[in-house]
Structures are given as C-alpha cells and as structure tokens.
Amino acid sequence: MFSSFKRIIKTGWKGFSRNIGLSIATILIMVMVISLATLLFLLNPASKILISGLQEKVDISIYFREDALPGDIQEVESEISRIPEVKNIEYVSREQALEKFIEKHKEDPVLMESLTEIGYNPFLASLNIKAWQVSQYEQVANFLETGPFKNLIDKVDYHQRKSVIEKVFSITSGINKVGVFFSIIFGAIAILIAFNAIKIAIYNSSEEISIMRLVGASNSFARGPFLIQGAIVGFIATLITLIITFGICYGLDSKIRVIAPELSIFSLFLSNFWTLILIQLVTGIGLGVLSSFIAVRKYLRI
Amino acid sequence: MLSIQNVSKIYPSHSSGKPTVALDNVSFKIDGKEFVSIVGKSGAGKTTLLKLILAEEKPTQGQIFFDGQDVHKIKKSQLSQLRQRIGTVFQDYKLFPSKTTYENIAYVMEVMGVAEKEIQRDVHQILELVGLIDRADNFPNELSGGEKQRVTIARAFIHRPDVILADEPTGNLDPYHTLDIIQLLVKIYELGTTVILSTHDKEIINSLGKRVITLDQGKIVRDEKRGRFIL
What we know:
The complex is a heterodimer of chains A (302) and B (231).
Chain A: H1 2-18, H2 20-56, E1 60-64, H3 70-81, E2 86-92, H4 94-105, H5 109-118, E3 126-131, H6 137-146, E4 153-156, H7 158-203, H8 206-214, H9 219-259, H10 265-271, H11 273-297
Antiparallel strand pairs in A: 1-3, 1-4, 2-3
Chain B: E1 2-11, E2 20-30, E3 35-39, H1 46-53, E4 61-66, E5 69-70, H2 79-83, E6 86-89, H3 101-111, H4 116-129, H5 145-157, E7 163-167, H6 175-190, E8 194-199, H7 202-208, E9 211-216, E10 219-224
Parallel strand pairs in B: 3-8, 3-9, 6-7, 7-8
Antiparallel strand pairs in B: 1-2, 1-4, 4-5, 9-10
C-alpha cells in the first residue's frame, strides 16, 4: 500500500517535470486564481477599516443655549452617555470653541476683525456625539429633540447633516452588498478558469490514461499521479502568490497611507499571515486536486 | 480458457445508411497454451474481436468467457484484474510518450504492486530478450517502429500473463523486423503463454503452421488446427 503510494507520488512528480511547459502555464493561471482569493480575503478587513474611518468622520452636535449652566450641560452629557447607541461624547465649552475658531482662522484678517467687532464670544457650548452605527444618529437626534433636555438645547445639527449621514450609510452598506456579490461572481469565474486550465492539461494525457486502463491499472492507480500533479501545481502557485502578495503589500503600503492614513495593508498582511497562507493553500491545492479528479474521470471509463 | 459464444458487434449508423456489422455470430474456444492466428482482410473484424476480449468494447450480442467468467459482466472497478492476466500488443504501440522504455515496461509490474528490486531484475531480463538493453533510457519518440513494437511486446509479456493478444504487431514494419517480432511471439508461446495473433500477412501465417481462424465480413469461414492463409 505504502509502496504504491510512493510510486504514485514519484509518477506524479515525473509527469509534472516532464511536461514543464504545460505545468508552468497551469501554475500561472492558478496564481491568478489564488491572487483573486487573496484579494477578496484582504479586501474584507480593508473595507471595514475604510468604512469605519468614513463613519468616524460622521457625528452630530448639540448646541446649548447661552444661559445653560455648565452643571446642567454635564448632567446632559452624563445622561446621553448612558444611551446604548452613543459611542463617544466630546464636550466643547464656549471658550474652547472660541479658541478653536481663532486657531483655525488666525490667518484670515477679515474673520479676525469681525470677531473683534462683535466684542463678545458668539460661540455656544456644544457636545459632539458619535454613534456606534451611522444608522443610529436619527434615534439619538430624536431623543435629544424630544427628551427631557430640550429646553437647554438651542440646536441639534442632525438635520443639516442628515443627507450627508444618509449618503455615508448608503455608500457603506452598498459597499458591503456589492462586495459580497462580486466576490461570489469573480470567485466562481476564477474557479472555472482554473478548472478548465487543468482540464486542458489533463486532456493532453487522455490517451495515456486510456492506455493505463488497458494494461491493467486500477482507477486509483491511474488517477493518483494526476492528483499529485494538481497538488504540486497548487502548492507552487501558492508559494508564488504569497511572495507576490508580500511584495505588493510592502511596496504599496506607504502609497495607500497617503490616501487612507488609517489603512496599512502591510500590517493587515502580517496580522492575517497564517490565515492567508491557509486560504491560499486550500484554494491552490484544493482546486488543483479537485479539478484533476473531475477532469480525469472522463478518461477512466474504459 | 477463452470461450467466444455467438458474439456479434454492430456499430450503429450515424447517418441514414446501414449499420456496420463488424462481427456476425462468432463462436470458438481457445484452450490453454495455444498459438492461434486470426486472419482476414482489413475490416474483417479482427481488431474488433480482440477489443471485445479485452473488454475495451461491449458485444451487441453474445458472451465472452475468460476462465469461466463473463468478461462483460465484470464491474468496471475490477476490470483491471482481468487485464492484468492479459498482455496486449497494440498495432499502434500505445506506449506512454512521457515514459522511457524501461518505465513503459515496468509500469505493468508497478500496477500489480511488485517490489522494485524484482521489477529491476525482470525488466532488465526482458530488455535483453527483446534486444533493447541499450534503449532503456530512451523515450518512444526516439525509437524506430521495430523497436517500439518490441517495447510493446516486452510490456505485454513482462508480468507473465495467461494470454497475449497481438493486434497486427507487424503491420507497420519491414520484413526484417516482422520476422524478429514473430520469432519473439513464438518464443513467448514456447515459454507457456497462449498467444492470439491477428494479422493479414500471408507469409507469417504460412510459416507458423499453427491454428488459423479465418474471418471474412465478420463471420468465421474457416478454423483449422494447422492452417494456411486462404481467403
């Protein structure tokens, strides 16, 4: 049994090495398939990071009336922080709001002169509120406008930002749905391409398989070497893809961070390294072996 | 050993023409250790008969028994065991193009699970028998027609089968190589193996003086113990 297995492996390796041109062509196609699987795998956390970054930029602000006392504002802050939908609250006092404005517009003499002309601090104290999900801002805004603190509140700026918030929500949920749809479609196309590449490679050996059967080989003895060849092709394609993935993630990391500072694809690669290897090996070797199995079946009918 | 009973093989027509009758109600028996020649013109049904014995195709009617077992009732998964008892010399050689001469011959023994040392010894011996010891590491595309046919014979005989089916083994060869091949087959027969030779070569048949079954248009027209080539 073991010696038969050894023979099958030896024959499989010889078959791979003696048809090296065809083997290389099949490996290149498998590299494309595994690269697609890798891309789809890395896109998932990458898009989550990007979406999260986008969502981080969304918030609503409550502006308090001029006569609101700091103690009242603190009470409001404490009550709001108990709302489960609220992720984070930042209190900006009137003085802090004035400082921020001056810092931001100190180079603009017109604005600075206007401020001096007014003669007093026109800015109101505010609370900037971030929710866990973009879809939760409406609930939070409704609570603030109809809740027990509405007498202290001058304005909740949710409605001015509503269209932007809804657009962000629609974009991010759209990205998720479209991502899943295209993952399935492209995944299926890639698998079909790889299967056909292996089928063509095995077609080249169709007469050999028939001869094997005619001289007395069992199905498993005839099929075995082709499964080994499929596994070898898958394994080598996995190694090549891993090297390419490393190179691309390392090379593009700094360039992508210019556009999306929160996203480091090289860190993503390193933190998911072992999972990535597993996915690539399963895709490469699994697809290679399964495709060989199905492709050889047709010629074993003799 | 081998019993052909009322076997017919009809190939259906792919257009509106008549179906092709390759074999028509053929019956005969072959006992152990016989040398039988099956003769006939091209298209008489010789190759079809050998394909049916090897279970490469199924008969339209009739049965073929090998050692009492109907070969066409054997499960596909067990056909390999039947074929390991038969050695076949194909007219078109059917060598593995990506295997060397040694590997082509050794393959049959590997299929049977024979130990490596034994394979090396036996293949070496048979390469000497067929005069191809210097061609052990060559691939089929590097061999002449006569050499390829000798490799095919070596592969058919290496595992000492009960029967050798030789389908027009000299069809593509010149007279010198033809003589070599026939002498090899006779040697194998003399070592105790049943040989079934299909040919349309008159000179071979008349020189052998063995049993001759003559086919004409799919029917047996003659079956003689010490036959001659007569059509």
